[in-house]
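Q: Could you fold this chain for me?
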Amino acid sequence: MSHVMPSLRDQLIEVVGAGHVLEDPQLTEQFERDWTGRFGGRALMVVRPGDAAEVARVVRACAEAGAAVVPQGGNTGLVGGAVPGDGEVVLSLIRLNEIGSVDAALGLVEVGAGVTLAALQAAARNAGFDAGLDFAARDSCTIGGAVACNAGGARALRHGTAGAHVAGIEAVLADGSVVTRMAGLAKDNAGYDLTSLLVGSEGTLGIVTRVLWRLAPRYDARVAALVPLPSVEAAAELLAALRAEAPSLESCDFFLDDGLSLVLEHQRRNSPIAPRAPVYVLAECAARVDPTEELAAALERAGIEDALIADDTPSRERLWALREGHADAIGAAGVPHKLDVGVPLAQLGAFLAAVPPAVTAACPDLPGGVRAILFGHLGDGNVHVNLLGPDDDDECADDAVLELVLEHGGTISAEHGVGVAKARWLERARGTAQVAAMRAIKQALDPKALLNPGKLLPPRT
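A: Sure. Below is the predicted structure, expressed as structure tokens.
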């Protein structure tokens, strides 16, 4: 790329201004490695366009120069899906941060790809709505990135993943052309649904620049419960009771006792639960009126006699800190291998029990062994597997986990995306025919493979 870089640099400076074309390693470093620290490489340069028209011009200039482009939002990804491999142009979308006026009649709002989830949540609340999406990276992650990997989070149980909120989309394709479907019509079957195609495509088919976001109702009355349980099977029984008795159920997460110990140590706090238990379920209900009676009825139906109830914001936040604090606590303990997977609820207990011995067997010569910290979203079988011990490039334990996932009828990616971390597993997970169809779509929309190369699709052998 050295022979085209000076000319390309000049073109990009003309489009976005010199202050938004970054080449100094001290400035580009934050864009070049993902949150885990495991994935990344050197960027040719980092470009920060200010609107969709500039994104289109940047992509067009890169296409003409034969330079690959890596779209990036808040860079909170965990699978290497939004960082360069070696010498690509990183196209940062963080300046596309405009939020339009909320259409109160339809519950829709136009959102730039660079808007953070926290900013969207605040705008929705101010308009009497809710964003309907939430997870721990809310202050940094962007809506464009959430849509690109179809992120989920704890509240997907009630409101669905990011894709469920996409009522329209604007995106720039590999040749710099712009596709726009922002009318927000509930009924519109004129041709292929390009919106759905782009959701979850991880920037390999097009660069999302704007989203028409479908908001959720705002529920201010909330109550949460932290329930210690003897087994995953007991947790599944509790979930059944919650679904039957608590229509206001919004989220239902789980974590294990070793994870709680790590979080308590990191946060330097004592356990709010005594005696301790093997499994913990954190459930939250939300409604327009106090849902405490609903939650109490569900707990009674499940035979729960010992639970921590939090019916005010500070106490709920303290309970959620035990679950959301897992990521920081794990990161403080080392550089984790993070695997976001999903298994059917009926297989969850067997899967969780099988992970520790499987990763130990996969890395018999590793000093200290492999520590597996498991937690996730009980309501949709989404498990976050965190492995401490293996080197960055040692994937033996990762492979053992993904093999277990497939054996238990699950998916290798529930909400974080495939990225580079799991690309070589895609054909095992989806089958030859589906991957061939994906390659055909990629070839049609990006024939030169310039959009986010090496991500999602497995390398050809």
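A (continued): The chain has four domains: 5-92, 108-217, 221-327, 335-415.
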